[in-house]
Structures are given as C-alpha cells and as structure tokens.
Design brief:
The complex is a heterotrimer of chains A (about 525), B (about 280) and C (about 450). With about 525 residues, chain A is of the alpha+beta class. Chain A has 18 helices and 15 strands. In chain A, the strands form three sheets. In chain A, strands 1, 2, 3, 4, 5, 8, 9, 10 and 11 form a nine-stranded antiparallel sheet that branches. In chain A, strands 12-13-14-15 form a four-stranded antiparallel sheet, with helices on one face. In chain A, strands 6-7 form a two-stranded antiparallel ribbon. In chain A, β6 and β7 form a beta hairpin. Chain A starts with 5 loop residues before the first helix and ends with a helix. Chain B is flat. Chain C has 16 helices and 14 strands. The relative contact order of chain C is 0.17. Chains in contact: A-B, A-C, B-C. At the A-C interface, α1, α2, α3, α4 and β1 of A face α1, α3, α4, α11 and α15 of C.
Chain lengths: ~525, ~280, ~450
C-alpha cells in the first residue's frame, strides 16, 4: 500500500487552509462594518482552531474530531447557551421590542388626521442627492388646487410659475430633483420622521403620492419617562404587571398592550416550579413520557430483532424482497406516514375501524390514544431496528457461531449465549440514542394526537402529552409566545434528558465491561 | 427436505415475514392508492386502488403555487450535502474514538452522547436569531436558504458516530498494525484501510442520515418559508394542511415521489447491507 | 378563516425572532474547509435572505435579491393579488413578490417582522389585530373611517382601534347553513327542524347523515358557537360601547350550561347529529360527496361545493325553537401593512390606492369568492352571483370575532368543552371547568 505523495498532501492542506483563512479575511471588513463583533470573534476562533489542528503534525486525534465537533459546537452548543441566556428574560409576544422601540411605536401610532383638514397630492423633492439631500414637499391641495411647498421649517404658498404642474402633481421645479417612486421608497426611514409643521399638527407623507395633515396626540417626556395625551391631558406612567411593564393611566387602563424586553433573572424558573397549573400535569406526563419512550424502544427493538433473526437465515428465499418491503415504512418520510396514520384512527371513517369492524374511538379515549401512538411508533421504528439488527447479526463473526454449534449449543441457546450478548453490545448505544430520541419525539405526538385527548378543565395537558409537547404548548400556545419562559423550560428539559442519558450511559458501560 | 421439516425450519419464517410485510405495506398501499385516485379525496380512497390515474401527479407539476420539481431538487441538494458531511465527520470522529488513545476520550464520548440527546428543536429560538444575523452578513447562509438550513442540520454532523465506531471496533487491529509496520501514517490507515473496509456501514449510515434529512420537518418549517426554498417536507405538509380532505391525492402523489429516491437508494445500497458486514478483506 | 377554527397546533413559529449578537458566520469558513465547495446552491431568489434596510451596509449590498414590494398571503388570495401586484410593479417600475405562506401566517408575520425580515404586506383576518398591536407589528393606514365609507360597517369596525384604521378589509366570512336540496327541499327554520328534516332524509336513504359540522376530538368552538349562542350561551359579555368585556366570561354561567345541554342533546348520546368523527378535515367532503344533508361552513367551502355535483342552497344558520337567533362569528379578511416593512411607501400606496378600488376588490372576489367588504362591490357581484348575498345574509346576527391576544388560550378551552359535551360528558361540570380555564387564560400575565 502506497502512501499518497507528501507533496500532494501538503498542497491540498495549504489550499484548504488558505481558503479558510482567505474567507475569514474577506469576511472581516464586512463584519467590522456591520459591527458584528461576536461573529468576528467566532470566525477567527474557528480559524485558530482549524489552523492549530491542521497546520502542524501534532494533535492527531483533534484532526479527526475537529470538523464534527466544530459544527456541533456552533449549531447545538452555542444555541443552547444562547437559550440559557434567553431564559432569564421576559422575551416573547408583547415584549419583542426594547423600551425605546415601544415608545416610538406607541407615539407613531398616535398620529390621527386633523378633522376636516385638506389632503394633498405630494411630490417629494430635494435640492441635493435623492438619498441624502434636504427634503421638500411640493403639495397640491386636492380640493382647491392650491400649491404649497413644505419643509421642516413650515408650509409656504408656492407660485404656480415656479414649478411645472402635470395632472395636479408638481412634476418639475428648477433647482430641485423630484424623487421617483423608487427613491421615495428608499428614503422611507427619513420620510418617516419628516413632517411639515402647521398650526394644527403637521403634514405627513402617505403612500407615494399623497400627504395629509395629521396630529400626534401623545407626547413622551424623556425626563420622567411618561407619555402624555395632549388632547385629554392624561399622563401614562410605567407600571409593572407580572413579568412585564406597561404604560398605564391613573385609572389603571393600559395605553397599549405592547410592553418591552427586560431581564427577569430566575423568574421564569421560579414560575416553572411554583405555578400550580403547570405542576398539576407534570408528574402524570413525566411517567407517561418514560413509559412511552421505553415501550417505543422495546417494541421496535423486539419486533425488529425478531424479524432480523427470523429472516437472517440462508435458507429463507427472497430475503432481498423481504428487506426491501420491510424497509418501506422507513423510506416514507415520517411526517407523511404520521399524517396518514392519524387519518386511519378516525372512529367513523378511519381505515382501522373499517377493516376490523371495531368502533373504537381511538383518539378520543386516553387509553386507546396511547395504544394508537405506540402502534404508529412501532410501524415507524421497527424497520430501523430491523436494519440495525440485521447489520449487527451479520457483523458477528460466523466462526463464533460455528464454534458454538460445534460445542453442541442448540439454535436458541447459541443465540441467547453468544449472538444476543454480542449483538447487544453493538446496538446498546443505538438503543440509548433511540430512547433519547423517543423521549423527546415531538413529531409523532404533535402530528398524530396533538397530545390529546384533553379534558376541558385543563386543555393544556393531554393524555398522550410528553414533556416536550406539553412544554411547547405551555410556552407557545396559551397566551402567545413566551419565549423567555420557553427557554427556561427547554433548559430544564435538557437537564432531565441529560440525567436520563447519563444514567443509561452507565448501564451501557457496565454492559461493555461485562463483555 | 420434507414439508414438515421445511415448515419447522424455514416455512414459519415466511409466515412471520408475511405478517410483517402486511403490517408494513397497508399504510403504504393506502398512500399509493390515494396517489392514483383521480378524485383525490379521503372518502374515496381505500387500501386497494379502485382507479388508476396520473391526474394527481400531473397536478403536482402544473401548479406554480407549489413548485414540486423545485422542492424535490431542494430536498436532494440538502440531503446530499448533509448526508455527505455527516457521514464523513462521523467517520472521522469514529476513527478517533475507536483507534486513537488520547486524554479525555472517555469524557469526550460521554459529553458527545449527552449533547446529542438535546433536541435541537428546543433551541430553535436561538437558532432562528442566529441565522437571521448570519443572513445579514452572508445572505447565502441566512434564513430561507438551502445552505443555511443544511448548516442547522449539520449541528448533528456527529449523528452517525456510534454506529460507525461500533463497526470500526470490529475491524481487526492487526490490519492497522501491519500498515504501521509498512510505514503508513494515521491518514493512510484511515483513508486507505479503514474507510474502504467500512463501505457497508458507510452505506447504511448514509442511508439513515438521508432518511432523517428527507423527513426533517420541524426545522424546515421554520427556516424555509419561501415557496421556492422549501423542501418536500414543508411543501407537502402545506398541501395537506391547506385542505386535507381534497388534497390527499396530490399529497400522496408527492409523498410517493418523495419516498421513491429513498427506496431506490436502498435498493442500490442493498448489496452493501446484505453483502454482509463481515465479508471481504476483514476476514483475511 | 380556516385559521380561526382553533387548531391546537401551537403557534411555534411565533416562537422565533431575531436577536442579534449571538451568531457564527464562522461556518462559512468551516464549510469551505470541509466541503471545499462554494455557495453554488441558490436560494431561489428569496427576498427574506437579504439584508434589512436600515442596517449598516444595506444600501450598497451588491445584489439585493429583495423585491421592492413583498406580500405574504394564502392560497387562494394569492391568485387574485398576484396579477394586481404585478401591474402595480410595472406601473411603478419595481419588482414585486407575492408569497404563499402555507401555515401560521400570523405568527410567521409577527416573528419575521420583529426580526426585520418580514414582508411589507400580509393578508389576514381581523383577529390578527390584538396580537399585532401587542407586538407593534402593524402600521396604521392613513385611511379615516370616512375614507372607508364605501365599506361594510362591521368590517371597518373590526380593523379600527384607538382612532386608527389598521387594515383594509376585502372580504367577510361567517358560517352559514349549506343544504343539499335533493335531500331536503325546504330550508329549516329552527335547529329542531334541521334535525328532523335531516334525519328524515337519512331515513329515506338519500344521505348518510343529517349534518356535517366540524367537532373533532379537540372540539371546534368556532363552528359550534352559532348553536351555542342561539341557546343563550356567550363567550364574553359586552361593554356599554358594544366591545367585548373579557372580565365577563360567560362560560360556566347558568345560561351557558343550559345552552350546553341543548348541544349535548344533539351529540353522541343524544340525537347523534353532532359527532367528534366529523372534523375540519372531512366535514366539507361529507357534504360535497352527497353524504350529508346539511353542512355548517363558511365561504371557503363554496368552491368545493360548486365543483361537486350536489345541488345546494345557502341559508343563515337557524336558532333553536323559541330561542335567540344563531349568532356566528364574523371574520373580516384584510390587507395589513407591517411596521418594519422595508418598503412602507409602496406598501401603503398599494393598499390604500391600488387595492382600495372596486376593480381590485372585484378581482379578489373573482379568484376567492366570498362576500366583498366593499358594499358597492358586494351589490354588483350579488347581482350575478346570488350566493354572495346569501352568504352575507348569514352575518345578520353575527358578532365580531374577538381579537384579544389571549384568545389563543381561550379557544382550546372552549373547543375542548364543546367536544366533551358532544361526546357525552356532563354539560354543567364541563362548562364550569372550561370557564375556570378560560378565566385563567384571560387573566394570565
């Protein structure tokens, strides 16, 4: 066996590393310009790791571990850490904006048209460049046809001779550039703040071609942090309700349902541990969660292994056909088959009751819904176990089995004594992984039963809910998205999963040591 | 062989096999029947096809509001990229865990196992923000891009490490040791000896990865909202979510075409899987 | 309005939102290293992938894939909006993109808008308003109620809040009773009449069941509410100004129990007219396949029904004998402009000028038949399509669909209660516990 030429390896290495460094270098100015400093740090940290790993001949294990691990860190670990950070905020529906953004939005939304005020045909003009020059509004009163020019200084009548008017719009003016629709649109941010003050309010742009006289009825006082209604004189101060703050009037009415983002420390965790509504369903759901995951793994493994053992016999003809057909459930993407299965369970029109002649209300009864769930999950999962078991069976050196049969061990004894333990060693990590997968198998629950059936008293905790579907509903259902709270729940769920996984890992290790 | 003995030793196996085949096939038959049913409704569909019409397939391809061909292409791109990178990264890491001795190996495996248990979906809020920000810098990697979505899935790029490591462990060490004596370095051993021997398990894990990517729905539904950027999973879900009773036929037709590449891939790879993981040079 | 048949599917996409700071463009590099391939795959001209306006460097980004006007809508509204938007684009020399968002459009719009990569315009029903305001997601239109005098009063009210108009209504939707005229010749005047004639038709073998009304395992508050309201039940009481008062939860009171008993009598342990097997996925098909004498549904069912061979008529949903008339919910489909729109001028121009015309509203009706919210257009289309007038007549006693943000927690509780009652659970106990759940959803933080 010839080793690849040292020169070729070196060239490839230099090329790849060069591309990496080059890309990072190309990104750097963009990142600096965009002030994405965290990004920048991560990019160069990755480069440093890559260089340290591949530029030298040392750290051989790292050369094999770095690619996958980097991806894992960037797209699992970093998001998890960021979730952790999110879990200490009140972020969610109603708190997606900062306080400042909320104030701006509330004020902007308070502009109303001055009653009986005229509307104008608008041409936006500038003496400078369309992108940054000072803005002037050329206005034609839609009723009277009177001409005005407006700037931030105010409104002034305009001589008809100074401009060209086409179809009641100012279409040209000496010394001015009239902005095209595209330019008006591009200047949206500036135009949003541009108003022409008048006695009653100010003239504002509306759409591309129109302006109206509007009045802002709310005013923000930077010093006291309060908002005052200039018409009624009512003052709105900041008041806390639950984990969020609002602007509230003296009689307790909210000015707006819009709150803002703030840090709440461990409040989300406190809520998870003290809210009776949440706790009430927890124990029952946790038990079912464990049962569901265990039963799913056990059923799929037993069926898959049984079939593998049954069919993995050289005398069975058509093994290829069997394998092809038995893997069909696996070849159909899960979301498709789960949706199809959910239709099968309809009491009156579903395939299962039609074929069997039963009249079971599958998804309406807590017990049958669980059976339905396990049956569907068996269908979805047994081909994988069949595949894995077949592979593992064939990986067991046949001389071992031959040796066993020479020793006089019968079929089943040989299987129990030799094949099965060896096979178990090979598949235990997969069983653990399968347990973890099913422990948080949101897909099958959500698409098949939605966690139901539910009771009217607690429409948040269904009979087939597992922790993840329950918590997703708590976090995103009910009162809209509560993302900070959701993040806290996700963190707790991660802790639970990790503890279960660690426990299983110990068992795996013991098994490994046994052999 | 007498019939009695045949039945005792082989026949019953066919019995069991047929029951399993029936269980496996009925829902699939339903999908097939629905796909060829020109009425395309739930009520008119049974397990046994009553009609044979390609209407639903035609409908899949002539509505610009659901560019099925585009979705198929998107899905294949994502599947190939993610499967390739995942199997390669997993094989690399599996080699380290199986053959190399280094400090923190045990701890590394344990942490990897723990991290892999974390359902990525739970961090979806953070991932969404992350890719919003990435998209601002590199639009080709942001939301609604196939590359961005592939990267999200590549968080699980070590997903196949255990299966591959299990297989590597069964490859006799004498092979590597002999190569070392011949003066081969670690890279040579990995690429020239281990990987070729591991073709069967690479095929199997590749298939597993492919299947999980093609069926990935949760992340795709969040990251790919643009019609043109969708994968089959989100696209087809949209069809059936819009009107289940009437769109069953079109959905089933799409489902069938989605499943087809996987079935073909399996048939194509079957010789690796069936050819036996022990055959070939391993034994010699 | 299918969206308001409250599905339990959590609006998880509401979950998402951009929060800058944590990130990792590093992967570009990594990708170059691992796959040694460039960015060959194109994302399909996705407007969302581009840089939001306003962020540094956005204006000189090399190739903005972005369209100058991005509209998110649903099938079939997109079929009407697309040609209108294309024409608008040609007139103004800009590119437009009309995108169909298959699911959770409202949550998607709020999320994407907050992250700065949302559309400029969305089409959604009026119950979007509460959540949109809570999240500061929509921008008011500078239309006054006066500008909207050509529109149905209820429709205008539904999109007006705090002296501002937040959307341009285009179509109304409410539940009506579709009747298979081959099975039952005369429209029923009461629920009892409906049950009697429906069951008689079953008895004669003309149909398999009397009524298709979606209930499902998790219930369907939206569809059952018409019967419930006729029997005296109400979700919320009303303030003196006619607005819903969330402090007066009607579920669990005596009237609601009485109404629930009337519904139970129609359920699986009563006359079996209502069944949990009938749900949103099969109700319309039951009717279009000629298996059901009656169907309770909205304008969205019309296209399917017309395609089928069933001869039908449309009448308002009847009330129970001697009780109040049935009051289904009135939903209003509308155009909304988003607060973080990248193209606010085009968005406002498109909504307040281009769509705000009889021609555009007629086009909406042509592609997606439902009663137009513009009264002149409704009149015109009703002349050639009597179904529109009949659908609109079903709204006579309708009450506006509540838009409180906490409705997401209220619908599942009420729906589940209805499903349980249809399934034979005790009406009084069920209503009481649902009332508790609803009150806790209303008062939750």
């Amino acid at each position: 066996m010839k080793a690849p030429s040292i020169v070729a390896t070196a060239v490839i290495r230099v090329l790849c590393l060069g591309t990496a460094v080059g890309t990072a270098a190309a990104l750097t100015p963009v990142l600096i310009a965009g002030r994405h400093y965290v990004f920048l740090a991560i990019v160069w940290a990755v480069i440093a790791v890559v260089l340290a790993t591949y530029a030298t001949a040392r750290a051989v294990p790292a050369k094999y571990l770095v690619p996958g691990t980097l991806l894992l860190i960037l797209f699992i670990v970093v998001p998890v850490l960021s979730t952790l950070q999110l879990s200490t905020t009140n972020y969610g529906d109603g708190t997606r904006t900062t306080r400042q953004e909320t104030v701006e939005r509330i004020l902007a939304n308070s502009v109303v048209q001055v009653p009986d005020s005229p509307k104008f045909n608008l041409s936006v003009a500038t003496t400078g460049s369309p992108a940054s020059g000072p803005i002037t509004f050329f206005l034609v009163d839609q009723k009277s046809g009177a001409l005005y020019s407006g700037t931030e200084a105010g409104l002034a009548p305009l001589e008809r001779s100074a401009v060209t008017v086409t179809d009641n719009f100012v279409s040209a003016a000496t010394g001015y550039t009239i902005l095209t629709p595209l330019q008006v649109n591009a200047a949206a941010d500036r135009l949003r703040d541009f108003t022409v003050p008048t006695g009653n309010g100010a003239i504002r742009q509306r759409g591309l071609h129109e302006a109206y006289e509007g009045r802002r009825t709310l005013q923000y006082d930077q010093g006291t942090g309060t908002i005052t209604n200039t018409v009624t004189g009512v003052r709105y101060t900041t008041a806390r309700e639950g984990d969020r703050e609002y602007f509230v009037g003296p009689d307790g009415t909210r000015l707006s349902d819009q709150s803002w983002r703030s840090d709440v420390g461990l409040a989300n965790y406190r809520r998870a541990f003290t809210d009776q509504h949440i706790l009430s369903g927890f124990t029952r759901i946790f038990i079912w969660n464990v049962v569901f995951a265990t039963a799913s793994v056990a059923l799929t493994f037993l069926v898959g292994l049984g079939l593998a053992v049954t069919l993995n016999d050289s005398r069975v003809r058509g093994q290829k056909v069997y394998r092809s057909v038995l893997l069909l459930p696996y070849a159909i993407p899960g979301f498709i088959s789960i949706l199809v299965w959910s239709g099968f369970y309809n009491q009156d029109f579903g395939l299962i009751n039609q074929i069997t002649g039963l009249h079971v209300n599958w998804l309406g009864s807590a017990l049958w819904a669980k059976v339905a769930l396990l049956l569907t999950n068996l269908w979805l999962g047994f081909p994988y176990m069949f595949l894995v078991s077949t592979g593992a069976l064939q990986a067991i050196p046949s001389d071992l089995r031959e040796a066993a049969s020479i020793d006089g061990a019968g079929g089943f004894t040989a299987f129990r004594r030799i094949t099965f333990p060896l096979l178990l060693v090979a598949v235990t990590p997969l069983l653990v992984a399968s347990f973890a997968f099913n422990f948080n198998n949101y897909n099958v629950i959500e698409l098949l039963t939605h966690g139901g059936p539910f009771s009217p008293g607690n429409p948040d905790a269904g009979a087939t809910d597992i922790l993840i579907s329950y918590t997703v509903r708590l976090a995103f259902g009910g009162n809209g998205a509560q993302l900070g709270f959701a993040a806290a729940i996700a963190t707790l769920l991660f802790a639970i999963t990790a503890i279960m996984a660690a426990a299983q890992y110990r068992i795996t290790r013991r098994l490994e040591e046994m052999n | 062989m007498s019939t009695g003995r045949w039945w005792r030793e082989v026949g019953w196996r066919h019995g069991v096999g047929l029951v399993a085949v029936l269980f496996a096939v009925v829902p699939v038959a339903y999908v097939v029947s629905a796909a060829f049913n020109p009425l395309g409704t739930v009520a008119s569909t049974g397990v046994i096809p009553k009609h044979l019409s390609l209407e639903n397939f035609a409908a899949l391809f002539d509505d610009p509001a659901r560019p099925f061909a585009r979705w198929l292409l998107n899905t294949l791109v994502v599947c190939v990229v993610v499967t390739g990178v995942q199997v390669f990264c997993s094989a690399l890491a599996a080699y380290a865990f199986s053959r190399l001795r280094f400090r923190g190996r045990r701890g590394g495996q344990l942490s990897l196992l723990l991290i892999q248990m974390f359902p990525q979906f739970l961090a979806v809020i953070a991932l969404y923000s992350m890719f919003t920000a990435i998209g601002e810098v590199v639009p080709a990697l942001g939301l609604n891009t196939l590359l961005g979505y592939s990267l999200v899935l590549l968080g699980g790029s070590l997903g196949q490490v255990w299966l591959i490591k299990g297989f590597f462990d069964t490859i006799p060490r004498q092979l590597d040791e002999a190569a070392v004596v011949d003066g081969a370095g670690h890279a040579t051993i990995f690429f020239r000896i281990i990987l070729p021997l591991a073709r069967p398990v690479l095929a199997v894990t590749g298939l597993l990865a492919f299947v999980s990517v093609i069926g990935e729905f949760l992340m795709a539904s969040i990251f790919l909202t643009d019609t043109q950027a969708k994968t089959l999973a989100v696209g087809l879900y949209g069809i059936i979510a819009a009107d289940r009773s009437n769109n069953l036929g079109v959905f089933a037709a799409g489902a069938l075409l989605t499943a087809l590449p996987v079935v073909l891939l399996f048939q194509f790879l079957q010789r690796y899987i069936v050819g036996g993981l022990t055959s070939g040079s391993v034994k010699d | 309005m299918k969206s308001t048949r409250r599905q339990r599917v959590p609006e998880r996409r509401g979950a998402l939102r951009g929060r800058h700071g944590l990130a990792g463009a590093a992967t570009v590099v990594l990708f170059a290293l691992v796959a040694c391939s460039g960015g060959g795959s194109d994302a399909g001209g996705s407007p969302d992938a581009a840089t939001p306006a306003g962020s540094p460097g956005a204006s000189d980004a090399p190739s903005r894939q972005d369209a100058d006007l991005v509209i998110w809508t649903t099938e079939p509204a997109s079929r009407a909006v697309t040609p209108i938007a294309k024409k608008f684009g040609q007139e103004n020399g800009i590119s437009v993109a009309v995108q169909v968002i298959a699911s959770d459009l409202a949550a998607n719009a709020i999320t994407a808008n907050a992250a700065g990569n949302g559309p400029d315009i969305v089409t959604l029903p009026n119950d979007f308003l509460g959540g949109a305001l809570q999240n500061g997601a929509v921008a008011p239109l500078s239309l006054t109620a006066d500008d909207l005098s050509a529109y149905d009063e209820g429709a205008v009210t539904s999109v007006t809040r705090n002296d501002q108009v937040w959307a341009l209504p285009y179509g109304t939707e409410n539940l009506v009773l579709y009747r298979n005229t081959d099975a039952v010749a005369k429209a029923p005047s009461t629920v009892e009449d409906l049950v009697g004639t429906g069951q008689a038709a079953v008895g004669k073998g003309k149909v398999k069941r009397a009524l298709a009304l979606p209930v499902g395992q998790e219930g369907d508050a939206y569809h059952l509410y018409a019967f419930f309201s006729s029997a005296g039940g109400s979700l919320f009481g009303k303030k003196p100004d006619g607005q819903y008062d969330p402090e007066q939860v009607g579920i669990g009171d005596e009237a609601s129990v009485k109404a629930a008993q009337k519904i139970a009598a129609l359920g699986e342990k009563g006359s079996k007219v209502l069944s949990r097997s009938i749900d949103g996925t099969n109700a319309i098909a039951q009717f279009t396949e000629g298996k059901s004498a009656y169907l309770v549904s909205g304008p969205w069912a019309l296209a399917d029904i017309r395609k089928s061979e069933v001869s039908y008529d449309i009448t308002p949903i009847p009330g129970f004998q001697g009780e109040a008339p049935a009051a289904p919910f009135l939903g209003v489909q509308a155009f909304w402009t988003l607060s973080n729109a990248k193209n606010p001028a085009f968005a406002e121009e498109f909504v307040t000028k281009t769509m705000n015309t009889p021609e555009a509203m007629t086009a909406m009706y042509d592609e997606d038949p439902r009663p137009p919210a513009r009264t002149d257009v409704l009149k015109a289309v009703s002349a050639k399509d009597p179904d529109m007038a009949k659908l609109a007549a079903g709204a006579k006693n309708a009450s506006l669909l509540p838009d409180f943000p906490f409705m997401a927690g209220v619908w599942p509780a009420l729906s589940q209660a209805f499903a349980s009652i249809v399934g034979g659970e005790d009406p009084a106990a069920t209503m009481t516990s649902a009332g508790t759940a609803i009150r806790s959803a209303v008062t939750a933080p």
